[in-house]
Amino acid sequence: MKKILITAVMAVCIINGRAQQPPVKKGSKSSKPATADSIHWQGQIGAKRILLTAVPKQGGLKAAWFTSPENSIWQLKADTLYKKGDTLIVQGPLYFGTFYVKRSADGKELNGYLLKDTVRKPLVLTSVSAMQPLVLPQTPKAPFTYTSGNVQYYNADSSIHFGGTLTIPKEGAKHPAVVIVSGTGQQDRDGNMAGHPMFAVIADYLSRNGIAVLRVDDRGVNETTGNYFNTTTREFAADALAGIRYLQGRKEIDAAKTGLIGHSEGGAAASIAASESKDVAFIISLSGVGITGMKALLLQNEAIVNSSPITAVNKQRFNKVNKVLFEIVYENASDTALEQRMRTAYRQWQADDSAFIAPLDKKQTDHFFYPFERYLSQATGPWYRGFMTYEPSQVFPLIKVPVLAINGDRDIISLATPNLEGFQRYVPAGLIQTWQVPGLNHLYQHCVTCATNEYSELSETFAPEVLERMKQFILSVK
């Protein structure tokens, strides 16, 4: 995943034993599913492919195997295989699920559902000769009304070489343009998150509508050099400006209408860039940070913890230790003694926590583990110190260009209300537009549970209404 602000608990599944998945299964070493008479059916749930390979026998199937590349599962043998009436039941391990399907009259499809953790997920498996590529409804498809080419450029001091893709509308001479700025976590130029090429879809839509788009590999990814993990949000802002200046040097681009689209932390980087440079003509913030870095991380962790399948007592414990440690980091972000002070605070919390849980039923406190050493390593690094002390109140008032700030109302990574209120409060009046979009998660998908583990199970890559609003905003910039 993604593309979210780095958190202390890293999405709770590492903490709660019930939410953990077992090690990746690569299949039985004693059995070979691929034989001359093997048959294959392939289906897809969201951005995850599932291939069922079976060896037939008279009147049915002899054995079956599952392959799901996006789940890192390869030739995993089914536990049981049988028919009940006209329904074929193929049962895998608990963490994978069980197929309940019926064969179509022509034998080319298996129609039914995958049952996992009491949840039914509709599934159609189609007869194939071998595993087919992942297909998503919004993946860009020909014919294209724009040109697309790989580009390369450097930052101001030539210390970083950037590789990206620039899409330019075929019709017209001078086009408005944007640079897409990614959020936390290394991303490639297509913005692949949870199996979805988010930035490629944005670029496709905007360039079909008259807007040039530059999307770039993050530092240390593919053709872009540099050490991502030692880079701060302010340095990411400088990277965004390098992209702006590259665009302004292209004859096809209207230099006076080049702006930034920043997702998540990228919204903060875009804001910093616009506050420091007149080259930025506008900003679109997608789930950007409108509150202090400290508050953003605290609210994010609370939302993730509170939506996790753990006991109320353990939720209380996680939220307490996060608050204690976050405050220590915030207060000592520039201090060389930060590590020592974090260790002291953590020991004190452990003592307090032991007294708190002593009289409680162990069922309320089982499966609790706080990854302190990992958090310590993260929190003492340059990125975390810098982000923790990010202050929109010192950045937003310096922005002198139009800003569109958007958030999904079901986003648990960047909470809509406090962040949008920050943009409204600090960006100069007359320059800010905000939109809290109903039903969208952090990746701008219409969601059901809206938890982070649902992202890859959804077929939608990016909400069409948000694409349309971004297009209208960019084309309206004078």
TrEMBL record:
Keywords: Hydrolase. It holds the Pfam family Peptidase_S9. GO terms for molecular function: carboxylic ester hydrolase activity; serine-type peptidase activity. One of its GO terms (biological process) is proteolysis. The keyword Hydrolase applies. Residues 201-303 form the Peptidase S9 prolyl oligopeptidase catalytic domain. It comes from the Bacteria. InterPro entries: AB_hydrolase_Est10, AB_hydrolase_fold, Peptidase_S9_cat. The keyword Hydrolase applies. PANTHER family: ESTERASE ESTD (PTHR43265:SF1). This is Alpha/beta hydrolase.
